[in-house]
Design a protein that fits this description.
109 residues, alpha+beta, four-stranded antiparallel beta sheet, 36% helix, elongated
Length: 109
């Protein structure tokens, strides 16, 4: 059996490999964020947080997506790689001087 004679088999194998690598990448990313999140210390800079956790999924004013809005505050959100199927979001909040003052994990059952 050659690939030229069975292009559908080749396509199915390619899709299966893509799904496998997507899931593996997501699990590794989630594991890295989960294990390092507790290391985020109050007073750490935004640069320190990005170095530790990587680039956030999004940045917004504090409380825009989750919780009570706060004035003069920036929030980095790190989403679970499989959100919204697995709704888990890590939040790091920064004061006016771009230093961490609070962290949260938002999770839904």
């Amino acid at each position: 059996m050659t690939i030229r004679k069975h292009p559908l088999a080749f396509l199915l194998i390619a899709i299966a490999l893509f799904v496998f690598f997507f899931i593996a990448w997501g699990m590794m990313r989630n594991s890295r964020i989960d294990s390092r999140f507790s290391s985020v210390q109050s007073g750490a800079s935004q640069r320190d947080v990005v170095r530790l956790l990587g680039k956030p999924s999004w940045t917004e004013p504090c409380g825009k997506s989750f919780g009570t809005p706060r004035v003069d505050c920036t929030e980095f959100i790190y989403r679970n790689s499989f959100a919204p199927l697995l709704p888990q979001y890590y939040s790091v909040q920064f004061d006016n001087f771009d230093h961490v003052f609070e962290t949260f994990v938002y999770s839904s059952p």
